[in-house]
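hi support,

uploading two proteins for the ticket. first:
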Amino acid sequence: MRRGFEEGRFGPTAGAGERFGRGGFFTASLGDLELAIEHLEDGLALYRQVGDRRGVATCLRLLGTTMFELGDWERAEALLEEGLALARESGSIQPGRSGAGKGPW
C-alpha cells in the first residue's frame, strides 16, 4: 500500500490513514515495533493531510505508546500530550467524565 501512495496511484484519504493506523497497531501487537512506527507515521501523515483530527489523535496515542515500549520516554510523552490535547479539542474525550468520551482515549 505504501508503494501505491509513493507512486501517486492513491490519494490521501481518512480510510487510508485508518488502514495504516490499524496496520501499525497490529504490527506492534506482533512485536515489530519499528515497522509499527512506520505504519503509524504514514497513517498520521494521511490523517493530517485530510484534516481528520480524531485520526491524528489516535495515531499520536498509538505512536506514543509504541515509543514508550521502545524506551523513548521523551518522545512518547510529547506524542501522548499532543494527542490528548487534540482529542480534547475535537471532543473525543470530555475531561472529568470517565467513559463519557466518544473516542479511544
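and the second one:
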Amino acid sequence: MIDDASAMISDANATGKHARNSQILAELEHRDSLAAWVAEAFTRSVRNNILAEGTAQAIRFAGILLFARLLSPSDFGHMRAVLAVSLIVTIFIQAGIPDAFIQRRDLSRYHECAG
C-alpha cells in the first residue's frame, strides 16, 4: 500500500512538473510573440511618424512658396515676422507644462483645467 501511495504521489509530482513546464513554455512563446508584436508596432509607429512629419514639412514649404508668389515682398516680410513672433509666443506658452503633468502623481480637476 505504501509503495502504491508513493508511486501515486510520484506520478502526481511528475504530472505537476510537466504541467508547470508546459505552462512556462507557453508563457515564453507568448512573450516571444508579444515581443515580436511590440517590435512590429514600434516600427510601424516610427514609419508613420516619419511620413507624417515629412508630409507636414512639405505642406509648410508649399505654403511658403505659394505665399511668396501671391504676396508682395513687403507683405511676405510682414507675414514672416508675425509667424516668427507667434512661434516664440507658442514656445513660452508650452514651456514645461507637459513635463509637470508627467511628473505629478495625482492630478486634481484644477490641474487638468489649467493651461
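thanks. also noticed: The chain has two domains: 1-70, 72-115.
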